[in-house]
Amino acid sequence: MAEISPVKILIVDDETAQMKALCNTLKDHGYETFGFVSAHAALAAMDGTNFDLLLTDLMMPEMDGIALLKAALQKNADLVGIIMTGEGTITRAVEAMKSGALDFILKPFRLSAILPVLDRALAVRRLRLENAALERRIRERTAELESANEELESFSYSVSHDLRTPLHHIASFVELLDESCGASLAPSDRDYLNRITAATEKMNCLIEDLLDFSRMGRAEMRRSRVDLQNLLETVIEELQPEIAGRNILWKKGPLPTVQGDPSLLRQVFSNLLLNAVKYTRPREVAEIEIGYVHGPRETTIFVRDNGVGFDMQYADKLFGVFQRLHRKDEFEGTGIGLANVRRIIARHGGRTWAEGKFNSGATFYFTLPH
Length: 370
Description:
Blueprint: E1 8-12, H1 16-28, E2 32-36, H2 39-45, E3 53-57, H3 65-75, E4 80-85, H4 90-98, E5 103-106, H5 111-181, H6 187-218, E6 224-227, H7 228-238, H8 240-243, E7 248-252, E8 257-260, H9 262-279, E9 286-294, E10 298-305, H10 337-347, E11 352-356, E12 362-369
Parallel strand pairs: 1-2, 1-3, 3-4, 4-5, 7-9
Antiparallel strand pairs: 6-8, 9-10, 10-12, 11-12
């Protein structure tokens, strides 16, 4: 087991007798003490020794305790300083605490008063060091995750881009085969050819969606004030060809103005409304409601529908890439739309989740911080 090093205390007091008495007393209590009557000599000693605590007199002729503490912290930011002062200079002791000292102790000393102050100072130092180590690990982990994410997105983009060429060749040769032999194909051969064409189109959709997903992670954020009500109306207008002939009851409460990237938030609304339009298709009258709740730290926007819903035990799969809860022959799609929603909202610092019940509709939520 590693041996624990004793706590090193740098003691500075221009009164030699008092400095030596304090050094000896604290040494008897397990501390490793280093005493100086000169502030400059104490600072020089810091170049060769890593001290835990600085215990310095406030009023000294060469350099006062506040100046010494500031200079010491420049050398060792992890050092915890305690000021020693007389009754008449408490105001300056408070000033010293504003300059970086943790605490002060009054002269003449009582050991019963000094030891608790030292214990508290050491506890604060340990906490600071642990927090610094934690922050360092978080920074390192964040850098690792960002690097891994960049590599993954680069890989996804590269793979998707490289797949398009052979897929284009397949589609071209199928078309040539159809032109050359289409009239003489047996019904079974025609079925095979149609299946190849459908699979090629499906694969092309998957690749395009994967490229979109990759681009969402790399797209530059351009934040501005976004009127969500106008954005919603624009998206609904763009959906008109998709909903032609449908009986849809839109319930649109007034939406707020938020800070965000307008083009990315437009994609969020487009994906969520398309999702609602798709899964309300079996309903004679589709009801789609868009509203919001204003909270102290964030605004929550929701899109609610009376569609086929989903089983809540599978809710965690909804926002995954290529994740689907319904059969492809029931509802078309690649399973990328909601993954894009989550990625965009995460880049805005928000959250996404969904609630639903099988055959009783669903509600999708996302938040935007104030």
